[in-house]
Amino acid sequence: MRISSRLRFIVCWAVGGCFSRKCFAALLLMMAALGISTNLSHSHAAETLLPIEVGQPTRLEVFPQSIQLTTARQVAQVIVTAHYKDGRIQDVTRVSSITSVDSKVAKVAAGIAYPVGDGETELVVSAAGLESRVKVAVSSQSLPDPVSFQYGALAGFSKQGCSAGACHGSPSGKGGFRLSLRAFDPKLDGETLVREGSSRRVNSVDPDQSLVLLKPLMKVAHGGGLQIKSTDASYHVIRDWIGEGCRLDAKDAATCTKLEVYPPSGRVLLHPAHTQQLSVRAHFSDGSVRDVTELAVYSSSDDEVATITPSGLVVGKDRGETAVIVRFLDRIETSFITFVQEVEGFEWNDPPASNYVDELAFEKLRQLQFQPAALSSDSEFIRRVYLDVIGLLPQPSEAEAFLADNSPEKRKRLIDELLERPEYAKFWALKWGDLLKLTSGNVGPRAVHKYARWLESSIATNQRYDQFARDLIAARGSTLSNPPANFYRTAADTNESVEIISQVFLGSRLQCAQCHNHPFESWTQDNYYGMAAFFNRVQRQKTGRGNELLVWTNRTGDVIQPRTREVMQPWVPENESLGKLSDHDRRETFVNWLTRANNPFFAKVEVNRIWAQIMGRGIVDPPDDMRSSNPPANAKLLDALARDFVDSGYDRKKILRKMLNSRTYQTSFRTNDFNRDDEKYFSHYLPRKMSAEQMLDAICHLTDRPETFAGLRIGTKATQLPAPDIANSEFLKAVGQPERQTVCACERTGDSNLNMAIQFFNGGLIAGKLKDKGNRFHRMIAAGKNNEEIIRHLYLTGLSRLPTQGELDGTLKYLPEKDDRGAAFEDICWAMINTIEFLFQH
Question: What's the pLDDT tens digit per position in 234-283?
């Protein structure tokens, strides 16, 4: 009966309007636990290719401006762009007329120019009454042009998905047929295709009867289904390679050195413009250039914004920016395209910008026609900034004083005060503890406290971030006397060192590259082991004194690439020159490169991480997965923050202060008609569930019944725990406390589950604190406080605001219905704990 009365009350509470969304967290949690979606957003993206409205352009631009076809197999994708008087541009390739003046020299089909015979001619391009001409030179058509095994046949298998991880590129292959993932090992693939299985997969006498073609054509039973058509470019290049005798490439054959994608990044298409044909050209080490548009593999970073056809046609679905990822074997390039749609009734409301953060955020919002939300209320702001900076709710007296303060500088002043409080360092040390896998099990019961205190001290003293990274990466000595040396306790071997350092400080997840080239990024297996060469000489030895470990480096110790058996030289991304390697410790060379002011990763990773902590989403999201195929929502903003961070001397507190003082951070979570669909560009604050530790501290704060943790001083908050296994709290585990077994930010999620719902509906921890006669409201009852005083105090304590009249009337009406006044307030407090407004950071 107790639960039913509480549910009856909480429904009354919600209807009374305590929160604008008129719902409560208990139902949300239970719905999530039962798999019921609470996402009411809908995609209105068009599912069919719309016709092009050419209109009246002022000129046509054709790419390429001239064409040279120097082999019998070369082709050229032609792209036609219409330019308009108002500055708009539009790809009109698929509605343009493209003809060859001399069909004996070149022909055109579906926008692609093909060689026919040696000579020169022109392509005539016309659309909307305008005409442009492109010179074409064709040569060497009588000379043989054999298909390259790597850049022809293997590219064809990759294009059709045959060498993808879900097909024959998986570690064990499929149906006894294994290819290297995305053709990263051509030697292995040559053996597999030509010699393995008594050469039964290829038939050079009758190529069309080759098993590698019959199966994906479904002329022979194929577990992968139909994967290729006889009209595909991939089919023809694989068939011709087989027909030419399955020749492998010579050792000195030209290699692909780069990809060129047209249009380059930055193209903006204003509706009705909604499609863009791509052109992809591969540059080779012998100076030759080949159009590989038909053999490249395409994907979009955001399919809700745009999709891409196998032929490289980008189709806009909704407003926004997408990264078009183009892969040709191990080469990856990215082109950013922004689709803009006029929104009926949209007028920029021109909110005041507090600093460059707002200026750049507003620039993107205005371009995409998302209206920024209004400024958050004072009660929303104080609760938000307390939770983000120190992890705790404000005291009721602090909330009351802030709400009563009419000074225009009060928010700025509060931010400065919070950044100087000791709780700031303790809370942000918790966040770094997650990244560094700080647990008693990982580093030992003595070292865990020393390591945690070192993290806290680093943040409290505002240590330069570059020095912080250096202390960790170049650490040596005893894990007890030099706590940063524990870094090499959790990074227990060379491979873990590479993967942890790359993910924490470069924002790159390199685990895949240990076994093969990275499937989503241009990191290769060679790159992985080149990075490993910096850390392979790190030695670890137990001293026999408790769990103490000594860390030092040898002067010798090379890394052998397991596939090629080559000795790997130290390597860093971007192929930057490292200069002379440190004779004493190669890690010094690495960290010198890492902390350079022009390092393309280091500063961006940290400012993006800080942004994600306070905004609920990174500019690049997830924040530890920074790659060209996962682009920033606002590249200009990320670049500006990184520059500011470097210029400040890697001052984390300064960059955090800049973010907190921005209007972008201080916007309301309440959406308007012009930003309701935005979850990416920061037009409004994104509500998120409090962390497990914050939830426990908030419950303790509301009831004024603190938790005690064995072995820790009285008064230690959950947000100040050195490690999760020290607390060993059933409640914390149930509501999402990470185990810290990986450095992935994904370990700490905002997902709800059935265990969490049970804890909040009828859990022992909450029930115990509510029944405790020494809690906040029971003491107020004993002190003779009237109902209205207690209700107002509870609202200030838990929600940092006073109740609305409807909420006050609803609770005052409920209280007399209970014979036990204390039990009635238990229900009221329980109901508050179970609201979204209490459980969520908003």
Answer: 989 999 999 999 999 999 999 999 999 999 988 999 999 899 999 999 99
Residues 580 and 649 reside in one and the same domain: no
Angle of helix 764-771 versus helix 821-833 axis, rounded to 10 = 140
Contact 134, 62 (CB under 8 A): yes
Q: How far apart are CA 585 and CA 570, in angstroms?
A: 12
Asked if residue 84 is part of any domain, the answer here is: no
Are 482 and 476 contacting, i.e. CB atoms less than 8 angstroms apart?
A: yes
- 207: nearest Cα among 180, 179, 240: 240
Domain, as residue range, for 357: 351-375+614-686
**Chain Cα centroid distance, residue 468:** 24
Q: What strand order describes the sheet that includes 79-83?
A: 59-63, 79-83, 89-91
Report cis status (omega within 30 of 0) of the bond before 622: yes
DSSP per-residue codes, 199-230 = GTT--SSSGGG-HHHHTTTTSS--TT-----T
Q: Enter the pTM of the model.
A: 0.86
DSSP state of 839: H
The terminus-to-terminus CA distance of the chain in angstroms comes to 33
Residue 64 scores a pLDDT above 80 = yes
d(CA 515, CA 214): 30
The Cα–Cα gap between 834 and 695 comes to 11
pLDDT reading at 666 higher than 90: yes
**Could you tell me if 709 and 837 lie in one domain?**
yes
Q: What distance in Å separates the CA atoms of residue 753 and residue 737, rounded to the nearest whole number?
A: 13
If asked whether residues 576 and 719 sit together in one domain, one would say no
Would you list the DSSP string of 482-503? SGGGGHHHHS-SHHHHHHHHHH
Question: Are residues 359 and 415 part of one domain?
Answer: no
Average pLDDT, the chain: 88
**Within a domain: 315:** no
CA distance 350 to 249: 61
Do 707 and 574 lie in a common domain? no
Residue of 664, 644, 779 whose CA lies nearest to 361 = 664
| Token pair belonging to 377 | 């209320």
Q: Is residue 334 a contact partner of residue 629, using CB atoms and an 8 Å limit?
A: yes
Gyration radius of the chain over CA positions:
31
DSSP 8-state assignment for residue 146: P
CA trace torsion 470, 575, 652, 497 (10° rounding):
-50
Cβ contacts of 661 within 8 Å, gap of 6 or more: 354, 355, 411, 412, 415
Measured distance CA(547)–CA(539) in Å, rounded = 16
Three-state secondary structure string covering 402-431: HHHCCCCCHHHHHHHHHHCCHHHHHHHHHH
pLDDT of residue 614: 96
* Per-residue pLDDT at 227: 87
What span, in angstroms and rounded, lies between the C-alpha atoms of 565 and 575?
A: 21
Cα-based distances in Å from 657 to 412, 417, 419? 9, 11, 8
Phi, psi of 768 (to 5 degrees): -65, -40
Q: How far apart are CA 299 and CA 315, in angstroms?
A: 11
CB 120 within 8 A of CB 94: no
147 token code pair: 């298909």
Tell me how far apart the alpha carbons of residues 365 and 353 are, in angstroms, rounded to a whole number. Answer: 13
* 3-state per-residue secondary structure call for 9-25: HHHHHHHCCCCCCCCCH
Query: Which tokens belong to 584?
Result: 């004493």
Last residue of a domain, one of 594, 627, 660: 594
**Shared-domain flag, residues 539 and 638:** no
If you count them, how many residues does the chain have?
Answer: 842
Domain annotation covers residue 46 = no
277, 284 Cβ separation under 8 angstroms: no
Q: Are 409 and 442 in contact (CB under 8 A)?
A: no
Tell me the DSSP string of 344-391: TT-----PPPSSHHHHHHHHHHHHHT-PPPPBPPHHHHHHHHHHHHTS
Domain total in the chain: 5
**Spacing of C-alpha 19 from chain mean position:** 31
Mean pLDDT of 286-293: 94
